[in-house]
Amino acid sequence: MTNSRFDVVGIGNAIVDVLTQTDDAFLDQQGLAKGAMTLVDEAQAAKVYDKAGPAIECSGGSAANTIAVMAGLGAKCAFAGKVRNDAFGRIFAHDIQSLGVHFDTAPAEDGPATANCLVLVTPDAQRTMLTYLGASIHLKPADVDLEVIKAAKVTYLEGYLWDPEDAKAAFRTAAQAARAAGREVSLSLSDPFCVDRHRADFLDLIEGHVDILFANEAEIMALYQVDDFDAAVEKVKGHCKVAALTRSEKGSVVVSAAGVEAVKAAPVTQVIDTTGAGDAYAAGFLYGYTRDEDLAACARMGGIAAAEVIAQIGARPETDLKAALALKLRNWDAAD
Amino acid sequence: MTNSRFDVVGIGNAIVDVLTQTDDAFLDQQGLAKGAMTLVDEAQAAKVYDKAGPAIECSGGSAANTIAVMAGLGAKCAFAGKVRNDAFGRIFAHDIQSLGVHFDTAPAEDGPATANCLVLVTPDAQRTMLTYLGASIHLKPADVDLEVIKAAKVTYLEGYLWDPEDAKAAFRTAAQAARAAGREVSLSLSDPFCVDRHRADFLDLIEGHVDILFANEAEIMALYQVDDFDAAVEKVKGHCKVAALTRSEKGSVVVSAAGVEAVKAAPVTQVIDTTGAGDAYAAGFLYGYTRDEDLAACARMGGIAAAEVIAQIGARPETDLKAALALKLRNWDAAD
User: Best exposed site among A102, A170, A258, B183 by fewest CB in 10 Å?
Assistant: First the structure.
């Protein structure tokens, strides 16, 4: 994997997060399923926001978070996703471009507002999300620059991208172009409910179109409709080159032709907000992968990036992640 | 001070902060005076924002922060300030209303956008601010509900409100109505540069129109154009009922008819971002004041609120400030 202008290009919903701290009683009152990402329209989002506490706003989006974290580590990245030319759209573009990420998807000049996600964080650090897809639904194949896809070692796609109707075509176009150029394709399953909504499509994609699959325990079990993690591991074998399966405090399991390898979790001092843990894991993993690290090292890097992100509010690290990664990789070896 | 619907009503610029971490080299490149608040137009603000790193957005404004912190402590508060009916305006209104603050200033339906402040935080926890006043400049006397002023024990005004031309009249109207109703008026000097811009007006106001004055060392010295804090303390004597003068890690000094009392600073574990320290001090102080605490207790409460705010990013505490205040007041006594 040499002569690449980009390490990874991500394609996903371009979202601004609205983060607020709340409690279980509020989730109950609003009839929200804790831990889930629910798609809502603008009115439904406003109804809950009006009753929620003070919030902070920051750029989000699953694949966009992964790309932002990778850029923070020093990787060369690009991103494609649709915002509208409005206040949130300008925030999204500023934040990702200011990290050195190539992002030039033309913003929509009319139609729905830039997507936002109301993230309700409970004291147990769980996040419950209400997503208004807004302008994201207008991402079309023409928005994906195939020259960028061909120039990237890995094209990374979030499962959530399967929700907006038009974006599916963009998703397929990108994946085909990447593979035709001899590049690799990576998919994150995003969320067990997202898997439920698109199971057949995801199974089809993983069968021969995806090289590196990311999923957590709940997502991979939902994909294969089994209630046991080990059964899911058996099912995924042979369907993609690498499956990196995350298990929170139990670490992660990497399934490949070389076998099944379990890697312990990175130490975490304090869990504040689990928003973006999976996104950060994928970032650390792909950072190692595009630098030809072995799969266990990739999994360690993923775990360290996730540990940094869950120790703070929000999905993109405020800390110097590059320094944290170097330090923790050293300590990791020392602890073994 | 009984039979009051509100403890404090604040009047100030209604601003959304755009917070980003930066370094001294960036401030130098942009020709920015470190630690100062500079008024800029939309184009100047955009020029610096475009070159700055990723940011988070949250409600700000000096008096608005004070009111938000007081509301978090359990005080009954109101706020008046002008936003536009746009994305940032809706964020501002949501955040302050969701704290239980009475805020019903009608948003502007056209004209400049909601005010924003680009807050550049350096590793030494100093903040350098670029403020675009936007819709704030349209706060007019008619926007101040005199029934609310009359119903509040204290009307709190930020010095920054003297910058937008029309707001001065609103400022004077509110102060006169408060005093006519037998209520008290409090003024924060906001910033030494703000004092330089409006020295004569502030000196005139303090002479007989202000009961409780808040200023830090630099501001009170700028007001009296002296280069020694003790000289400034001598100058302020007799001009207002109470002057609460903050001195960062040296604590605060309260000047009143009872004399001059120095109160040590509250312990701080880690200074991350000094944005809002003065606003939080005023909140803690006025919380005690409107509960008839003695002035030394008010100063302790101010110091504790400030210590909480500087240990995090942003000007409004993410923590349960009420619990922190109770705990730290107990520890304070134990430590003496």
Answer: A258
